[in-house]
Amino acid sequence: MKVELNVNGATHVAEVEPRTSLLDCLRDNLLLTGAHAGCEHGVCGACTVLVDGTAVRSCLMFAVQADGYAVTTVEGLSPGPGELSVLQDAFCETHGMQCGYCTPAMILAAHALLSKNTQPTREEIVDAISGNICRCTGYAQIVEAVALAAERMRGQNLPPEQP
Amino acid sequence: MKPAPFEYSRPSSVDEACALLAADDGARLIAGGQTLVPLMAMRLARPTRLVDIARIPELAFVRDEGGRIAIGATTRQYVAEHDPLVRSKLPLLARVLPYVGHGATRARGTVGGSIANGDAAAEIVLVAATLGATLTWREGGNDFEMPASEFFLGPMVTALPLPACLTSVRFPVWPERRVGTGFHEVNARQSDFAFVSAAAQIALDTDGRCTRAAIGIGAAAAIPLRLDAVAEAMLGMPFEEAKVRASAMAALADIEFMADLHASADYRRRVALTLAVRAIADAFQDAARRV
Ligand code: FES
Ligand code: FES
Q1: DSSP symbols for B44-57
Q2: Is residue A162 situated within a structural domain?
Q3: Do A60 and B37 count as a contact with CB atoms less than 8 A apart?
Q4: Given this model, what pLDDT does residue B191 score?
Q5: Residue B108 above 60 pLDDT?
Q6: What is the domain-level CATH number for residue A112?
Q7: What confidence tens digit (pLDDT) does each residue in B152-161 have?
């Protein structure tokens, strides 16, 4: 089946089987490997992407279901070639990653939070990433990274980021 | 973890969806897919065709029908969670929705999907059973409705006929001024499947005495349980923990609890009792705060 996806602002047409997950479509058809395959049944959160600005699990959505929607992957977050977003920078600074397997998904989940809530409490940050498993960091630095990014984005005095 | 091949259709009306279901025994509806797709990935479900009803506009709504709130079957859990009508008129549903999966699954998962799957561990199923919601569906061009007490039949088995499409869930609204709710669940990790859950909604008169109560236990047995005897025993009374505990213990005595690797039947029975008492205590307290 033919699907038309708007991914990171560009329209892509892909030919997929109905059973192809959005995750596999992004990775195999569009060669966007930022969304990671962990469990492929909705448990780990490594495959998180934004669909119309909301964090969802791309392994629990078939590509055909996403037809016509706007999808954002981690590749779409950087402001320019070789640059990192405020949030990505914060992950580097606070050592919010080790192996990096969970990282793109963590960043997208946090991005979805910060685009709606510029002053998240610690509980809200924890809740926003609670569906994402990290086996390395122990989460403390990830929470720190999101809080740091939130603080910096407030300091910039900009309207909340639109995903 | 790849699902077996299937055909995919996206009908534009409920009747068209029903016709597709009727034409193929192996066809199943998909809306949010947050329960179905994991089952397909593990090949516990192998539908031959998925009929995607997520974009049928008439199925997504939250409506005040006076005395009850109707929620369209494909209304996303995330949308219901933030809906002002749900928040003001269905306090028990509003209370449990944040416990349904994670934010990322609530963004896709639907209220009707949870009901149609009929998992006794699901929070929305528990609230529907506890409050006595009414389920409506369409089949062969006709509309049907059924109370929750008859709808949930067994572990992930409901009375919904195969070629039918659930259309809405109607939750009764309690008009009393002092209504309070309580909810507790125990699970391995936050937002995982509950081993046991308990929900309570209680209305109080101006003197703090119970005028109406609904108590439900989820995940403990094959279907969500309503503890009507406990609710009746509280009528006309203020909260008395010892009495509530005694009547809940009696009500749970002859229930056959499920057992698995994580939680034995005995454990579930003990936890059900504790959580029921806590949920009722919370509901009393919550109601007492309202004037
Ligand atoms: S790969 Fe999607 S949740 Fe694990
Ligand atoms: S950094 Fe390794 S899983 Fe999170």
Answers
A1: S---SEEEE-TT-G
A2: no
A3: yes
A4: 74
A5: yes
A6: 1.10.150.120
A7: 999 999 999 9
Contacts of A120 in chain B (CB under 8 A): none
Domain count, chain B: 2
- A chain contacts of residue B4, beta-carbon cutoff 8 Å: 19
Counting Cβ atoms within 10 Å, is residue B201 exposed (0-12), middle (13-18) or buried (19+)?
Answer: buried
pLDDT at B213 over 80: yes
> What is the rounded average pLDDT of the residues B75-88?
97
CATH classification of the domain holding A62: 3.10.20.30
Q: Are residues B164 and B198 in the same domain?
A: no
- Whether residue A163 has pLDDT greater than 50: no
A16 CB within 6 A, ligand 1: no
Query: How close is the nearest chain A Cα to the Cα of B217, in Å?
Result: 25
For residue B247, is it within any domain? yes
ipTM reported for the complex, 2 dp: 0.91
Q: Is B159 on the interface with A (CB under 8 A)?
A: no
Residue B72 and residue B86 in contact, taking contact as beta carbons nearer than 8 Å: no
Q: Where are the alpha helices (DSSP H) in chain A?
A: 22-24, 86-93, 103-116, 122-128, 140-155
Length of chain A: 163
**Per-residue pLDDT, B188:** 86
Pick the ligand that lies closest to the CA of residue A138.
2
Q: Considering the domain boundaries, does residue A81 fall inside one?
A: no
- Gap between the Cα atoms of A47 and A20, Å rounded: 14
Per the domain annotation, does A160 fall within a domain?
Answer: no
Same domain, B68 and B86: yes
Domain range spanning residue B276? Answer: 179-288
Interface test with chain B among A27, A36, A65, by most B beta carbons within 10 Å: A65
Across residues B44-71, what is the average pLDDT?
97
CA nearest A23 in B: which residue?
B2
Q: How far is CA B253 from CA B246, B247, B249, B265, B274, in A?
A: 11, 10, 6, 12, 14
Residue A159 lies inside a defined structural domain of this protein: no
Q: Are residues A91 and A70 part of one domain? A: no
At B215-245, the pLDDT tens digits run 999 999 999 999 999 999 999 999 999 999 9
State the smallest CA–CA distance between residue B30 and chain A in angstroms.
10
